[in-house]
Description:
alpha/beta, six-stranded mixed β-sheet, globular
Amino acid sequence: xxxxxxxxxxxxxxxxCCVSRWIPERDAPGEGKQGEEIFxxxxxxxxxxxxxPAVLARQVQSSIVKNVISAGVADKCDGLVTSTGxxxxxxxxxxxxxVMIYDPVLEIAVNLHVGxxxxxxxxxxxxxxxxxxxxxxxxxDCIVAVSPAIGSCCYQVGPExxxxxxxxxxxxxxxxxxxxxKGMINTQLIAAGVPPDKIEISAHCTRCxxxxxxxxxxxxxxxxxxxxxxxxxx
Length: 234
């Protein structure tokens, strides 16, 4: 069974579809040949995009964002941008976040893969700068949905994170250090010019949510959340 969540902030923009879909971990196959086969991208893409045209990023934990105009695979990048209708932009996650951006004025869609390396390398600001440079988009016009991701409740990190991020995004509990990825994403969106009331961040933690979301940190799963944004064409 495939589960899904939509994003309330997109409800006022029916011309744009934004959704996250996944196979609950309780229903996902285990290790071995069957598990490998069911999670083949070529097979899953048909199911998750309902056989509609899609472009996937070959994610490499970078800050590279690419313009795309047709279905296929965008090699070695972690961000996709399009103004093409009926083209699903797909980012797959299993603890990192998908940051899905829509400019309703110019009808431009963006999907970003954002983990700690993404916020450290400022992929969000770079993507919004690209929108301004390539499309004359304005950050204040954009709306944003952030997918389920690992929360500060569960995102245990090493002491080196103190060298990477402000202390406001790090919490120490029982001698362990935890990182607030979602808080960092929100801060970077606002710093880039997106109004706070145009940002929706999922409260679900991939590692501990009752939704049985895929979490690599929990069980090294091959399963992924398929985060999809699409501008509906005529």
